[in-house]
């Protein structure tokens, strides 16, 4: 059975077309990722699915219930961890969890036991009776996730759960989420703009760009679909325009873009293409620090589908539509 | 209905608990009424010489007034907590749960009423200690508190509606000041009716603050007309229903902007 089915979701905020027809589905028990840059429409999609806002067009079901016609049933079946933390900072961790449970109709011993269980699951037992204001960013975020789980939902929505966390707190959160997916046997929808996060956590993912799902599949399959090799050239200085222009003209390069001080190019055959790339850069006066040749990573998938690339249409076998 | 009451209660508990944790806020909450009471009653000691107050002791006249003043200030400012909750995403988190939307609104009105009631008790106790008399006795004091609680709930409805519409602290502070102070001066909180200009008397008739003052002052002074007390309490109850509806409407309007 499908835990989430979104079909042609559209949403406009004033002049901004936030969603231009988002379609995807998530199977029961799946850890699914919505990957995309900021402003791609990930959060808007999530907000429609958790019944916070209504779509202008299209329809969606969560846990078998229509998000527009049966919002209350959807709300009973889901946990939602918003992008901006929704914890009450003036209350303790335990108070936050207890109220959330009560709102979902839990009470008495059952509620107390569930709150204790979640506090310990997320390593918050010792901080349980302290006011959240004094929590670290990572602790607060773990409490956010715990809040979404109090009532044992069927589907959990995590909207950018690690954004703003330092690398250490992010690693802890990833461990928690991995464990959670196993222990609670949930369907999880995760939105993120971290490729590494989607690659590590999700069973399957969809890349969202400009309010549409541009591609959907497992991380492995998406990487496999990008034929050829990935060339990363570390540039000694930040002359990105020159570097891009120099490489763009090459026959062997299917697509290329500069990200920071790294030029990434996808080529049919790495060994044959690298000399040409290097001499083109030399001719353009762009000094090179190092060159790496690899199979495509999720970075390349992302780059390929989110439109930072150029002459995509020339690249045989990669045009969609 | 039971759901709604229970959920409103849980939400009320949350607000009360968070506020009680703010020690300084609690201290000021208790001291402020005392300051109002002492300063105003001292300032206006001689004003009863002008006549028309229904008593020669300004404290008797002012006590029910200050209970109302305190109540409608408490109500007018109570929307600030909604702005904090909106900013921190607390309301959105609740909106993704099956919680009754109206419980989020009702609990705020109830919180303002409870706060005004507690402060009212403190004011009355201090007032009596300072020598004020309430001619209606215990029933009179209860009527004063009821008027205060309704007043607080009513203005709290407006305050939360404005908070949901503006969603900005600065605008909210300006709006609360803009509304609260003129309404206080367009009422008989400080001065007896015969002493204020005719146009102000006319305006005060449609000023809910003055409805509260009338309901509270009538049982405090000798010669109480209980029918009039009931009539004004009824008007105040209508006012609470109206502003509660306004706040609920503002909540729906806010949801539509999400």
The computed structural class of chain B is: mainly alpha
Estimate the global geometry of chain B from the Cα principal axes: elongated
The sequence of SSEs of chain B as H and E is: HHHHHHHHHHH
Q: Write down the secondary-structure element order of chain A.
A: EEEHEEHEHHHEHEHEEHEHEEHEH
Please, what is the average pLDDT of chain B?
A: 92
The secondary structure category of chain A is alpha/beta
CATH architecture type of the largest domain in chain A:
3-Layer(aba) Sandwich
Strand content of chain B: under 5%
**Largest beta sheet of chain B, briefly?**
none
How many beta-strand elements of chain A? 14
Name the poorly predicted regions of chain A. Answer: 309-321
How many helices of chain A in DSSP terms? 11
**Radius of gyration from the alpha-carbon trace of chain B, in angstroms:** 19 Å
What is the domain total for the residues of chain A? 2
- The dominant shape of chain A is elongated
Strand content of chain A: 25-35%
- The strand count of chain B comes to 0
Describe this structure in words.
The complex is a heterodimer of chains A (321) and B (258). By secondary structure, chain A is α/β, with parallel strands linked by helices. Chain A contains 11 helices and 14 strands. Chain A has 2 domains: 2-217, Rossmann fold (3-Layer(aba) Sandwich); 223-314, Alpha-Beta Plaits. Chain A has helices at 42-49, 71-77, 93-103, 108-121, 137-147, 167-183, 195-201, 219-225, 240-248, 270-283, 298-305; strands at residues 2-13, 16-27, 31-35, 57-62, 65-66, 78-81, 155-159, 187-192, 204-209, 212-217, 229-235, 253-259, 262-267, 288-294. Chain B is built from 11 helices and no strands. Chain B is 77% helix and 0% strand. Chain B has one domain. Chain B is elongated and about 60 Å long. Classes of the chains: A alpha/beta (321), B mainly alpha (258). Chain A binds chain B through residues 47, 50-53, 72, 75-76, 78, 80, 82, 84-91, 95, 99-100, 102-105, 131, 147, and chain B through 6-7, 10, 13-14, 17-18, 21-22, 85, 88-90, 92-99, 258.
